[in-house]
């Protein structure tokens, strides 16, 4: 019943994709229009697995999973990464729930049998609560594939019924900051999902470059290739109503920007930036807080994915959490040397990154203090 073909992304996939996401799990980073931009511009070398139901009438797309083929260095063996390009934050395939038990094993078999694809796969930022995750683990066990769980984490999320904090010190501070900001000038929020986003996205880029990320060289505008890809990605999504840029303004001047992406009934808070001149008012947090309620009341959204880690400021705004996992797997017959080397490399990298973050936050030598509400950090 299920056939899988492997190909480069094209815009011809857009219509089957639109049909699939009406029935399937959500992952905006697998949207074919973005995959095509990334592949055609050379930002990432992408291969797409498409699962089709051929049993009745015209074939129907029932699953899609995109990977980038990547080498850490010219001397390092190639591997597959299920974050298909930089700035993607979810690795899960998009699969019709009625077919998940057939599609996931078929995907793994297709990779194993392909003479062109690497067999070691890095799966970072997997939603461990999605049906596809449980089926992936079961299929790996049944097929005898090697796997190594690198890390587990909890990602902040929000839903209409649970997730948004309605009381406590966080809510009190948000009210105070909003009132203080309103005393400075006329405050409003704009977020038009049907409008041309180019001007609003340029506003976001400038705010990000003027922030601490610009000072550290990690803002999008610090890298010409990254900025060019981001502009094309957001424009391609916005053209189909799948992206917008929300702005918090004072007297018409934007002081915070939130880039939003949409897939099915899920919104993704992709990137946040705010003006350092207004940092004492927590403008990024104020914008996210107001946009959360707006999305649930007017846009048919059932969940908001923060695309962020539990230490982010969104964890202070939302009580909802989703279990996430990073896996490294090898679908080849025996566990390979490439698998072992990559496991060591990724484990070492994660340890260094955690140590770096502790140094940045001063937690390496600092004496523990009482927890305070702060919205200073953002992605």
Give a topology summary.
Blueprint: E1 2-7, H1 14-21, H2 32-40, E2 46-53, E3 60-70, E4 79-81, E5 94-95, H3 100-113, E6 120-127, H4 131-143, E7 146-158, H5 169-184, E8 187-190, H6 198-209, H7 212-216, H8 224-239, E9 243-250, E10 253-263, E11 266-274, H9 283-298, E12 303-305, H10 314-317, E13 320-330, H11 337-361
Parallel strand pairs: 4-6, 11-12
Antiparallel strand pairs: 1-2, 2-3, 3-4, 3-5, 6-13, 7-12, 7-13, 8-9, 9-10, 10-11
Helix pairs in contact: 2-8, 3-4, 6-8
List keywords for this structure.
single chain, about 375 residues, alpha+beta, Aminopeptidase, 2 domains, 13-stranded mixed β-sheet, 11 helices, about 35% helix, globular, disordered C terminus
Explain this structure:
With 379 residues, the protein is of the alpha+beta class. It has helices spanning 14-21, 32-40, 100-113, 131-143, 169-184, 198-209, 212-216, 224-239, 283-298, 314-317, 337-361; strands at residues 2-7, 46-53, 60-70, 79-81, 94-95, 120-127, 146-158, 187-190, 243-250, 253-263, 266-274, 303-305, 320-330. It folds into two domains: 2-154 and 322-361, Gcn5-related N-acetyltransferase (GNAT) (Aminopeptidase); 158-321, 3-Layer(aba) Sandwich (Aminopeptidase). Strands 1, 2, 3, 4, 5, 6, 7, 8, 9, 10, 11, 12 and 13 form a 13-stranded mixed β-sheet that branches. Helix 2 (32-40) packs antiparallel against helix 8 and helix 3 (100-113) crosses helix 4. The protein is globular, with a radius of gyration of 21 Å. 44% of the residues are buried. The model is unreliable at 365-379 (pLDDT under 50).
